[in-house]
Amino acid sequence: MDRCLRLILGDQLSPHISSLQDAQPQHDLVLMAEVKAEANYVRHHQKKIALVFSAMRHFAERLESEGHKLIYRRYDEPPVHANLLEAVRTAVAQLRISRLVVTEPSEWRLRAEMEDWEAELGIPVEIREDQRFICSHYRFARWARGRKSLRMEHFYREMRRETGLLMEGDRPAGGKWNYDRENRKALPQNIALPKVPSFESDGITREVLQLVGREFDRHFGMLEPFDLAVTADQADIALTYFLDHGLPSFGDYQDAMKQNAPVLFHAMISAYINIGLLDPLEVCRRAEEAWQAGRVPLNAVEGFIRQILGWREYVRGLYWQEMPGYAELNALAAKRPLPAFYWTGETEMNCLHQVVGETRANAYAHHIQRLMVAGNFALLAGLDPRAVNAWYMVVYADAYEWVELPNTHGMALHADGGLMASKPYAASGKYIDRMSDYCRHCRYDVKQATGDDACPFNYLYWDFIARHEQRFHSNPRMAMPLSALNRMKRQKLTDMQSQARMFLDSLDYAEEGEWT
Ligand code: FAD
Ligand code: DLZ
Ligand code: SF4
Q1: Which DSSP letter does residue 450 get?
Q2: pLDDT tens for each residue of 385-417
Q3: How large is the average pLDDT for residues 192-197?
Q4: pTM recorded for the entire structure
Q5: Fewest C-beta atoms under 10 Å: which of 293, 339, 472, 497?
Q6: What does the pLDDT read at residue 183?
Q7: Counting atoms of ligand 1 from 1, which one is nearest the CA of 365?
Q8: CB of 123 within 8 A of CB of 95?
Q9: Ligand number with the minimum distance to the CA of 395
């Protein structure tokens, strides 16, 4: 009798995953395995490992209760497996398996390895499309073909038309595709913020926390308190809470940052979507329903849906289209190692101190913290993209290369030379001051550009613009800073450039591989 093994990876925890679609629970087997290679290919934040392992174990329990026969390999119980291939090979040998079915891995690294599995295992291996993404590889390639530039906004409009989300016939709801201009407000001082939903650990999670505390204690970040959702039901509670309490103000304050308030009006659901506890299209439909019911304004719902239907699908398409070469690009020839404060949070720059501190504690920072604080500093200081990517892969619970790399390499570092973003997201301290209260609590003075108290983002910014003047002079979107540079007194620029050099020379740098 044909006995099929169905492999489910740690970020494929969706009951409608394609690898299970025609499963016959009476005689097929489902394999899930906690393995060394996946848990250590970067030194993931401790909370990320706990989330993935606990969610895997809960998902396995659910499949069993639905009648599937499970083989579940635990990280610290024999037989332990170095990698997924070994786990599959053992099952194939012991259980007379005649074929393997798996949904394509989300990361290029593992997808490339799987190409050899059929030869390694000696049985047919069927790699199915991951239908949880709204835009297939084929559809993205069709959109991208023949285009000179691949701008998210054009892609997003096609996705709106195709899904019908926020459409009135063939026109965008409210007459505009994008309400971003209304979405850049600073946070009023005493605004009430929604609480972040918190989930108590059950027996499964407590066991996983012990395991992670024991085996991964040298990984970055704080394991406890751990209160993340680990099942689809809990993730649904987190989503519902956000739709009721966060989404109405999501648009207005999407770019704002506040001392000791890491989430603000964001959803904090990326880690859940990325492992399959929430379905992206369903999240968009739920947000649309909240708008249709009059509970949420259009600028908020459009801004939110754009992040998922637009950005998330777009970065995934771009990743698969451009890999593996994309990871090697370094258009700005940046080569400085990573300052140690990215790991310790110990810096007098309060914005970075806040963002790294919250990242250590929560394995989370919202988009503007990632882009305009941690990413902006890396861009201005000319940090090596490989070191910066390694950092982003380690520190966030939602980090998977397909989404991390385009955001870091393309959006934050401009290392792809502008394939993704038409201009670098470079900003001086003025931007951070406008969008946060960080500067009010900082030992540096955001209004000063030179001198002992000057905000480092200011002189690093002008040093960056001057360093890349030639490259950017033909880019119309850089006309403003370049003309300000040309109007600047030469002495002022020289002073800022030498202060930038001295500042960067004075930093402690992390040893390569120390944390990654
Ligand atoms: P919200 O702000 O509430 O947005 C809602 C949802 O939209 C998110 O949950 C997410 O699924 C999606 N989304 C929003 N922005 C993006 C984006 N730029 N790309 C893809 N999806 C998006 N996101 C990851 O999921 N994993 C990563 O490893 C990751 N690395 C990043 C690195 C850098 C340098 C930057 C600038 C961004 C990165 N992002 C990454 C995108 C984004 O910052 C996170 O998805 C978001 O902060 C998650 O928080 P949230 O759920 O509260 O999102
Ligand atoms: C992130 C992760 C971790 C930490 N551990 C495992 C694991 O032990 N077993 C597993 O199947 N998946 C794990 N994952 C998720 C995978 O890394 C993810 O499926 C791939 O990166 C996708 O290419
Ligand atoms: Fe950051 Fe400069 Fe503001 Fe300090 S003054 S918080 S370093 S932007």
Answers
A1: S
A2: 999 999 999 999 999 999 999 999 999 999 999
A3: 93
A4: 0.98
A5: 293
A6: 74
A7: 47
A8: no
A9: 1
Q: What are the C-alpha distances in Å from 442 to residues 33, 103, 235, 318, 431?
A: 46, 48, 36, 38, 15
Taking only the tens place, the pLDDT of each residue in 53-110 is 999 999 999 999 999 999 999 999 999 999 999 999 999 999 989 999 999 999 999 9
**Tens digits of per-residue pLDDT, 25-41?**
888 999 999 999 999 99
Taking Cα atoms as reference points, which of 141, 281, 110 lies closest to residue 102? 110
454 by DSSP, 3-state: which? strand
CA of 52 to the centre of ligand 2 (A): 8
Q: Which residues, other chains included, contact 181 with Cβ-Cβ below 8 Å and sequence gap of 6+?
A: none
- Per the prediction, the chain carries an average pLDDT of 96
State in Å: Cα 393 to ligand 2 middle.
13
C-beta pairs of 462-466 under 8 Å, 24+ apart in sequence: 462/428, 462/488, 462/493, 462/496, 462/497, 462/500, 463/380, 463/496, 463/497, 463/500, 463/501, 464/379, 464/380, 464/382, 464/426, 465/426, 466/493, 466/497
Handedness of CA 426, 431, 432, 436 (dihedral sign): negative
Does position 1 have pLDDT exceeding 70, yes or no?
Answer: no
Q: Separation of 125 CA from ligand 1 center, angstroms?
A: 33
Q: b/e for 467-478, b at 16 or more Cβ within 10 A?
A: bbeebbeeeeeb
Nearest residue (by CA) to ligand 2, atom 13, is: 10
Two tokens at 30?
């489902």
Ligand 1 atom 8: residue of nearest CA: 270
Q: Is 399 in the pocket of ligand 1 (CB under 6 A)?
A: yes
Pocket test for ligand 3, best of 442, 459, 461, 462 (most atoms within 8 A of CB): 442
pLDDT of amino acid 279? 98
Closest CA to 415 of 394, 387, 435, 391: 387
pLDDT computed for residue 184 by the predictor: 80
SS3 of 88-151: the string is HHHHHHHHCCCEEEEECCCCHHHHHHHCCHHHHHCCCEEEECCCCCCCCHHHHHHHHCCCCCCC
